[in-house]
Design brief:
Elements (H helix, E strand, L loop, with lengths): L10 H25 L7 H9 L3 H26 L6 H25 L4 H33 L2 H32 L4 H18 L18 H14 L1 H30 L7 H26 L1 H21 L3 H25 L1
């Protein structure tokens, strides 16, 4: 059954196409909204600071956030492409992600004060499960979206959904600030994680009901052959090679960002309740950036968006080095959100 049929000839197919779009849209709205309650750039560094003053752990969080998302995709892609239907796999892995966040809550409440070192180790275990699940799920999710959302509409969909998610995240940041300032540790962070879990779980469920057309069967490949093919593509396809290099640079840049919240707490007399305010600033930037970059990507191409945002990342390094007040850091976090949207939109379109 073709998903983009004539409405007058096939109203059932048209209804399913609209439902598919709505399901992807709801998930794209819910993910930034739910994730703002445990942002690895703002909330998690403040949480880790309650368990340890060693900056190594913040760096480890950033490393897990970057590497555990991208590396599993190479392993997973070889078997995912052989799945004719992917929605069940996508929903199962997505629920594992979310229940990993839920698993944080009891261990934080029980061990956060009495055994901070053990609580820290368990946090990294559950956070690693969360990111690995996202990594193994990534290729299937992007393939699922590619099958039901035309490429000419994907940028606009992610841009609009991201803008709405960003607006909701501003409210989420206010709610997180209320939790962190109004309750003692570890109840305050537990409430943040609980609300994030609820939002992410509710908004991902529609993906399990998508009317997904089966993929064409592909020949099974060994991982070694899959890696060889990827290397050949990397050598021969300039645009793909440029995209990979830009992602490596931007991922390395993202690792640094997690230290900003810890830096403002240590050097700028910020408190843990300021972390949600930084999140709000970041979401404002992302809310502006999502529809803007979505429109630019659809009209002028993904490569231009990546090029501009790589340049913005270079300029941001200079701004961060010279910043000397919390007020300036609000502007930095807003630009981070604007930059993130410019990274996410072309990545969603091209994968």
């Amino acid at each position: 059954m073709k998903l983009q049929s004539n409405p007058e000839k096939n109203p059932v197919s048209t209804y399913r196409h609209r439902f598919n779009y709505l399901a992807c849209f709801i998930d794209a709205v819910g993910f930034p909204f739910g994730s703002c309650f445990f942002s690895p750039v703002t909330i998690l560094p403040a949480f880790i600071r309650k368990l340890s003053t060693n900056s190594f752990w913040i760096g480890l969080t950033n490393a897990i956030h970057s590497s555990f998302f991208f590396l599993p995709q190479l392993l997973a892609a070889s078997w995912i492409e052989r799945m004719p239907i992917k929605r069940g796999y996508v929903l199962t892995l997505a629920l594992i992600e979310r229940f990993a966040i839920l698993a944080l809550i009891p261990q934080i409440l029980l061990l956060g004060r009495t055994s901070p070192n053990l609580s820290l180790m368990l946090f990294f275990l559950t956070f690693a499960i969360f990111m690995l699940s996202m990594g193994f799920n990534g290729p299937a999710y992007f393939d699922l979206v590619a099958k039901v959302i035309p490429v000419t509409k994907r940028g606009t969909m992610y841009g609009t959904a991201g803008a709405i998610g960003g607006l909701l995240s501003i409210f989420g940041a206010w709610l997180a600030k209320y939790f962190l300032a109004g309750y003692e540790f570890p109840i305050n962070f537990s409430l943040c994680f609980l609300v994030g879990f609820i939002i992410l779980t509710i908004t991902v469920l529609p993906l399990g009901f998508i009317d997904e057309p089966p993929s064409s069967p592909s020949q099974p490949k060994r991982l070694r052959q899959y890696v060889r093919d990827a290397i050949v593509i990397l050598k021969e396809d300039y645009n793909f090679r440029y995209y990979i290099y830009s992602q490596i640079y931007l991922s390395a840049f993202g690792v640094v960002l997690g230290f900003l919240t810890a830096y403002t707490i240590d050097k700028m007399i910020a408190t843990e309740s300021d972390a949600p305010a930084f999140t709000a600033a970041m979401m404002i930037g992302k809310t502006i950036g999502q529809p803007f970059w979505g429109y630019v990507a659809d009209k002028r191409g993904n490569q231009l968006v990546i090029l501009i945002n790589t340049g913005i990342a270079c300029l941001m390094i200079l701004w961060i080095v010279t910043a000397n007040s919390i007020i300036i850091f609000y502007g930095i976090f807003a630009l981070i959100g604007f930059l993130h949207s410019g990274i996410d939109i072309p990545s969603f379109n091209m994968t």
